[in-house]
Design a protein that fits this description.
Strand order of the largest sheet: 3-4-5-7-6
Radius of gyration: 21 Å
Largest sheet: 5 strands, mixed
Shape: globular
Number of strands: 7
Structural class: alpha+beta
Order of helices and strands: HHHEEHEEEEEHHHHHHHHHH
């Protein structure tokens, strides 16, 4: 890893990194095996690359990866029954989920810390170098450059307690994985156009670095959209989301709120800016259930590529605000209406919506 040294005294900094990484290991120990095998192996490969400081373009030594993988799984087994560690900062021990207190102490040292609950209930932690910070829409935005500690499958962006976190190194790694997969088949489409916009054919690594730096703004816009959606849906949405145990139910609930967030903020902003590379980037990440639920936006994208000036996209986004707001409210209403009958019944109601596919736009 090439992170610059922190301003904290060496021993204090080392203890902090060790505590954050220990919590990352514990989170992985409890949740990593819930991934599909394909995703698990891919994410473990990239975690190995990060830990060893191996360049994205370099081939990995398979034998050493196998030895490392066995040792990591043995470490996870040894953590059974362990608790998340408090973070040692300025002579105090701070709750690892108290991001406000941790960042108040670390920002003067040009460090940024993030913690929260990600998909399928997995806690995520990271400690990185603070690249820059700003205020957007009443929220604090903290952008991390390289990372000193991280867990498996890091989210490139998240928001918690009025703060948006963007992880530039994680975004760069995600883009590399996507580009590497694309290179094997060289198919056309949104990702091909996004890569071409940044000169991928001439210098892949430099192009992905430029792309990551450019798309930080798209990630911020999405998190601003999540915040706006949260204001409309209220705190009950997060409570409901945290109670969903079925993967399909959670994916569905997250997908419809993502669509609401992007129709409220992300896509209108990209259209207003006339940002073709970022529009291609957004559609390159429209996959899985999110794509299945919103075929109209895919058709509108094709019209935009054909030269309609964004008219179909603007119309689809406007309709999307109304539609996805209604769907989110229906999800929440069904879940709350069945909550008295028990968690299983509440989740079954959400699951039924996902299976019915009646919410497509």
């Amino acid at each position: 890893m090439t992170c610059s040294a922190a301003a904290l005294p060496g021993s204090d900094f080392d203890r902090l990194v060790q505590a954050v990484q220990a919590n990352c290991h514990l989170s992985d120990a409890r949740h990593a095996r819930n991934m599909t095998m394909c995703t698990y192996l891919m994410e473990m490969r990239e975690l190995y690359r990060w830990e060893r400081g191996i360049a994205l373009t370099a081939a990995l030594p398979r034998a050493d990866v196998g030895t490392w993988l066995a040792a990591r799984e043995a470490l996870w087994t040894s953590l059974e029954g362990a608790d998340y560690r408090p973070l040692p900062i300025d002579g105090a021990e701070i709750d690892p989920f108290d991001t406000a207190a941790v960042n108040a102490a670390l920002q003067p040292q040009a460090l940024v810390y993030g913690a929260g609950i990600g998909r399928f209930g997995k806690p995520q932690f990271f400690l990185g170098v603070l690249s820059h910070q700003e205020r957007r829409g009443g929220l604090s935005v903290l952008v991390s450059a390289c990372e000193h500690a991280r867990d498996l499958a890091p989210a490139p962006a998240a928001s918690r307690g009025g703060t948006i976190y963007v992880r530039l190194e994680s975004l760069r790694r995600v883009l590399w994985e996507k580009a590497e997969a694309w290179s094997g088949r060289r198919a056309g489409g949104a990702l091909a156009d996004a890569l071409e916009a940044h000169g991928y054919a001439e210098n892949p690594l430099a192009a992905l670095t430029r792309m990551a730096e450019a798309e930080v703004e798209t990630l911020i816009l999405h998190e601003l959209g999540e915040h706006e959606a949260g204001l409309r849906l209220g705190p009950q949405w997060e409570t409901m989301l945290g109670r969903l145990d079925r993967r399909r139910s959670e994916l569905f609930a997250r997908a419809v709120r993502d669509h609401l967030a992007d129709c409220l903020v992300t896509l209108p902003a990209l259209l207003a800016r006339d940002a073709p590379a970022s529009i291609h980037f957004w559609f390159a990440n429209l996959d899985g259930m999110r794509r299945e639920l919103f075929p109209r936006i895919v058709t509108a994208y094709q019209a935009w590529r054909a030269g309609d000036g964004g008219a179909a996209l603007a119309t689809a986004v406007e309709a999307g605000v109304r539609h996805w707001a209604d769907v989110c409210v229906e999800v929440l209403t069904r879940a709350l209406a069945d909550a008295d009958a028990g968690a299983d019944e509440a989740e079954a109601a959400v699951d039924a919506m996902a299976l019915a596919q009646a919410t497509r736009l």
